[in-house]
């Protein structure tokens, strides 16, 4: 980074709106992470020096894209390098939810495990069941590969446009005509659509009601894709068997209703949290900034 004067946010605390406004006025480039909110009110600040937001993350629903566009700001992200690690976390959640992994861990730590017993902590098989994917981009396809080739799972998905034929063939995947069809037919539903206005509470009470009582919901996409209260209701009343969550509405605040449930596995937004992935994400941010400041085409330009 010899070519830049860098100011780091060393205490890992999201800056306030005023601090972000000042950053936009003070620096040529600002590099937010996925928890740093850039609403229009911040982006519209007067006397901006900043020309580019080099986002450290693939999702950019924390940035008001229309406002950024209107302000002529360039935005880049980090696609591709976190695909496998995020799909691994989705698969981890699926397995933990199906096999009650977190509950078993709690049982031992609370010194309540008194030994093997034929009917203790009965759970659900994963192998040969059906995985339903909402969204079918890079991460969904990586999860489908692990699930299909590793666990013999049947793959169904919903995405407005059909996926490439070679991908469908490799996964023997079936495209459903609607999200409702996926919700009804899958043993595990995993969410892989982007966050933001268009997918806000896409998975609401009505959609959850369609799921089998033995099914599990997995969310590694964005918290606000799911109506959390509706999910809590379904888990409390055992309308569905379980859920595995890595992302939350208004994270890092987690509703008490989730914390007290045994049939939900909760991870702290770990999707991309491997050393190799986070290093590769950082390199992508730098490559994008280097390209911008050297007048070259940007590798990962969002706008
Ligand atoms: C992203 O990049 O959007 C992820 O949520 C970060 O792990």
Write structural notes for this entry:
The chain has helices at 17-26, 40-43, 65-70, 83-99, 101-109, 138-151, 165-171, 179-185, 205-209, 228-236, 256-259, 275-293, and strands at 29-30, 52-54, 74-76, 130-134, 154-158, 174-175, 188-191, 216-219, 242-245, 264-266. Helix 4 crosses helix 6. The mean pLDDT is 97. The radius of gyration is 21 Å and the shape is globular. The strands form two sheets. Strands 6-5-4-7-8-9-10 form a seven-stranded parallel beta sheet, with helices on both faces. Strands 1-2-3 form a three-stranded parallel beta sheet. The protein has twelve helices and ten strands. Helices cover 37% and strands 12% of the residues. The protein is α/β, with parallel strands linked by helices and 303 residues long. The protein starts with 16 loop residues before the first helix and ends in a 10-residue tail after the last helix. The structure holds (2R)-2,3-dihydroxypropanoic acid. (2R)-2,3-dihydroxypropanoic acid binds at residues 34, 57-59, 82, 271-272.
Bound molecules: (2R)-2,3-dihydroxypropanoic acid
In percent, how much strand structure appears in the residues?
5-15%
Cα(first) to Cα(last) distance is 24 Å
Task: Sum up the overall morphology in one term.
Answer: globular
Binned, the helix content reads: 25-40%
The number of helical elements comes to: 12
Q: Report the biggest beta sheet as strand number plus sense, adding barrel if it closes.
A: 7 strands, parallel
Uncertain residue ranges: none
How many beta-strand elements? 10
Mean model confidence by pLDDT: 97
The succession of helices and strands, N to C, reads HEHEHEHHEHEHEHEHEHEHEH
Secondary structure class reads alpha/beta
How big is the Rg? 21 Å
Main-sheet strand order equals 6-5-4-7-8-9-10
């Amino acid at each position: 980074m010899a070519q830049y004067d860098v100011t780091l946010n060393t205490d890992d605390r999201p800056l306030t709106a005023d601090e972000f406004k000042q950053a936009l006025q003070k620096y040529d480039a600002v590099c937010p992470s996925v928890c740093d909110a850039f609403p229009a009110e911040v982006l519209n600040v007067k006397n901006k020096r900043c020309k580019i937001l080099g986002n450290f993350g693939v999702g950019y629903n924390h940035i008001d894209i229309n406002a950024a566009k209107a302000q002529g700001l360039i935005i880049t992200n980090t696609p591709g390098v976190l695909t496998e690690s995020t799909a691994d976390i989705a698969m981890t959640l699926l397995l933990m939810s199906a096999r009650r992994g977190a509950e078993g861990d709690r049982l031992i730590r609370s010194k309540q495990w008194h030994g093997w017993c034929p009917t203790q902590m009965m759970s659900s098989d994963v192998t040969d069941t059906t995985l339903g994917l909402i969204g079918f981009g890079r991460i969904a396809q990586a999860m489908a590969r692990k699930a299909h080739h590793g666990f013999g799972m049947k793959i169904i998905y919903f995405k407005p446009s059909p996926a490439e034929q070679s991908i469908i063939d490799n996964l023997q995947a079936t495209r459903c005509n609607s999200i409702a069809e996926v919700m009804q037919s899958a043993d595990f539903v995993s969410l892989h659509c982007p966050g933001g206005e268009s997918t806000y509470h896409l998975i609401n009470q009505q959609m959850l009601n369609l799921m089998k009582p033995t099914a599990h919901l997995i969310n590694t996409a964005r918290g606000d894709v799911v109506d959390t209260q509706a999910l809590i209701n379904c888990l409390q009343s055992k309308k569905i068997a379980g859920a595995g969550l890595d992302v939350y509405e208004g994270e890092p605040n987690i509703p008490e209703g989730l914390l007290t449930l045994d049939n939900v596995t909760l991870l702290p937004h770990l999707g991309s949290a491997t050393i190799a992935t986070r290093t590769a994400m950082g390199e992508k941010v730098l490559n994008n900034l280097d390209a911008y400041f050297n007048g070259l085409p940007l590798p990962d330009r969002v706008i």
